[in-house]
Amino acid sequence: MNTIRNVIETLEAVAPLHLQESYDNAGLIVGDPEIEVSGVLFCLDSTESIVDEAVALGCNLVVAHHPIVFRGLKRLNGANYVERTVIKAIRSNVALYAMHTNLDNVHQHGVNSKIAEKIGLLDTRILAPKPGFEQIGAGLIGRLSEPMDEMAFLHLVKSVMHASCVRHTALRGRPIQKVAICGGSGSFLLSDAMRAGADAFVTADFKYHEFFDADGRLVIADIGHFESEQYTIELLFSIIREKFPTFALHLTEVNTNPILYL
Known about the structure:
The longest helix has 12 residues, at 232-243. Strand 2 (40-45), helix 2 (48-57) and strand 3 (61-66) form a beta-alpha-beta unit. The protein has two domains: 4-103 and 231-251, NIF3 (NGG1p interacting factor 3)-like (Udp-n-acetylmuramoylalanyl-d-glutamate--2,6- Diaminopimelate Ligase, Chain: A, domain 1, 3-Layer(aba) Sandwich), CATH 3.40.1390.30; 105-228, Udp-n-acetylmuramoylalanyl-d-glutamate--2,6- Diaminopimelate Ligase, Chain: A, domain 1 (3-Layer(aba) Sandwich). Helix 2 packs parallel to helix 3. It is of the alpha/beta class. It starts with a helix and ends in an 11-residue tail after the last strand. The radius of gyration is 19 Å and the shape is globular. The chain has helices at 4-14, 48-57, 81-91, 101-104, 111-119, 150-160, 190-195, 208-212, 225-229, 232-243; strands at residues 27-30, 40-45, 61-66, 95-98, 122-129, 137-148, 167-168, 176-185, 200-204, 219-222, 249-251. The chain has ten helices and eleven strands. The strands form two sheets. It has a six-stranded mixed β-sheet.
């Protein structure tokens, strides 16, 4: 019998919980770890529609990237989508698990390694390693096999990351070869990307004034939060499929991106 705990142990062998940031809430958020798993649904965000999808598929475990409970809950009365999702999961006997910044912070089989794979980066390393650890930390930096024209590179990123738009800084008239990446909100790594000599920095959630900080030293390519992390679903799926090849595993068909483009 395979339990929820067995699945969790497999995930955390890749990205242990102690690697998450202090502000994070990764781990088992709802559910009993000793219950037998009937199926697993992988997604980026745990929402009400995701729980409905899990029930329809016969899955009693949802593995997401983002924790549905990020800040402390003081009430459970259905006043917002977080409370409604937790209530629905409990009523439906669906466990909710999140693998967040601990998965961001590992090199191999991490969120950023998947982005690097899609873009085609070689010789990647952690952009901002934790003190004393080369293989643990934020972001990645690598190189393209050949230098690319800046606009061609932006079109490549837009295409492979299925971005509706790419917000970017002014082009510098220089080829792109060394590329820094960070899934999700990566503006805090801009100085690290510049210090590492990156020609471009692919990430999300840059604010208006933060674009000025590039100061012509590299090209920032902001592709959107959901877009930058969407392949994490495939990553989580592959981690479990390798250990449990006969399991009922499903990639969500629900688009949980809250941002739409006209």
